[in-house]
Design brief:
single chain; mainly beta; 13-stranded parallel beta sheet; eight-stranded parallel β-barrel; 39 strands; about 40% strand; elongated
Amino acid sequence: MRVGLAFGLALVVVLLAGCGGPIADDGFADTPAPVDETPTDTPEATPTPDEEATPTPDEEATPTPDEEATPTPDEEATPTPDGEATPTPEAEDDAEAAPSPTPTPASDDDTEVTPTPTATPTPTATPTPTATPTPEADDDPEATPTPTPTPEPEAAVQLDECTTIDEPGVYELTTDLEDRDEEVCLQITSGDVVLEGNDHLVGGVGAADTVGVEVRNPDEDDVENVTVRNLRVEDWGDGILVGEMAYLGSIHVDFEDVEASHNEGVGISVTGYASADFQGVTANHNGDAGINAFDGRIDGLRDVTANRNGAAGISGYDSGEIAIDGVTVSENDGSGLSFSDPTVLEGTDLVATENGGDGASLGIETVLDVSNAEIADNDGAGVSGGDDGGILLRDSVVRNNGEEGIAFDHGGVTLEDALVEDNGGSGVFLRNSDADLTETTIRDNDGWQLEVEDQNDWASVTASDLGIGDHAVFDFDDESVSLDTVPEGDLPALPEDAESVGDGVEVRGLDGSATMTLEYDLDAVEGDTVELWRHVDDEWSSIGTYDAAETDGSLTEELTSDGVHAPVENGSGSADGADDQDNG
């Protein structure tokens, strides 16, 4: 019996030892403490993050087998009764096995230490993460790219002498170049060039066949994207030349705030396949034209003045489509503007005054289309042209020119809100031309106010609110009619007891009909009625009788015949040879 009891107790001891529990002095196993994944050692047993117990990410989390912290498998798993810690089994070479916990050091006294259960190893401390490096912009598609630094502007090449510019770049004149006798002072043979004059002078000695600034390449290569600005060019044979006749390359120059004056020939010349744009340009007192584009193109004329030149102010042949905005051509020996062959000038604000020729002379297939123009005091016509060209004037004045205000032969004329007055010839002269005249007044011209010659049934004139003189307004469609005012004192002699009460109008070439409203002096009418009379073949006839009180000083009648028409008060009741009809 005792033997069996002793065997049973021994078996319990063995079982308890296998569970890792300590054996009490009385031979019975103490109840094992509840398993806790967190060690219950004293505060000293857990190292602070700064201590070496927690390895940094660069350190090895699992000690090597040679370290004493991990006992070899031969060591006994059961601790001795004196409190020696149960050794941790050696970690197997298993990539998924958790690392063994760092052994808890024994306390200085003999206090029994509860060993860490080996069944659940302490998790390895999470290493302090290494700072994530900032990705480079090129490796991260979502990263905001670093802006490319703005390159420093190219330093300008300083010029203080006449020279040839044969490389792209910015060139800056640093001083006046005066009294230079070179054949060409500044020659530009390369494209992509900016010549900054800084308002300096390039001055010659007035010698023939010399040039202040020339833009062309001797090898006839293209010379594009050239800008010349803030420069004065004076006293050369020709001030500035762009291109040359039969030049094979393409050339373009932008002129900004440039003055080319007092040169023996042309101020600025554009020829060959060259083109130029002019802004803020002055070309005065040159021996030839101020600006000339012979077989060269002008892209624009903005704030341009060409006055007192020996030929035209601005001239061209086959010069393309030209945008104009603020052009003044005055006191030139030739015409203010003179262009021929396919050229269109379109824009606003044109002043062409006191020129020796026409204000604007337009050749074959040339069109002038402008608003707010003043064309006045020229020795020739205000505007002349034809040969399939045209003129369109809006909100403009053509006055006091030595010849016709507007003269066109085989072309087209459109006038809107225009005034044509006091010219030495007819106000508007059209030969074999079409015209559309709207809200326009033609008055006080020495010739006919509107004169139309239709030699081949080509002329066609349409009018709406067309004023002839100060007292007559006409409306008609597709007529080749001429109209003129007849002052009251110049009317053909009237019969006895008949008195004119206003100016008359002469109509010639009326094929269909025209509506006329004719004002008269209501205060001059002594009776109750006023009549509209027509004079033709030396006879007057009445074509309408009106109640003076109801007319309010104007008579409106549809005319169907030529003749002189006048408002008359007839005291005798009929006109000599009149048919006494109420309307014509």
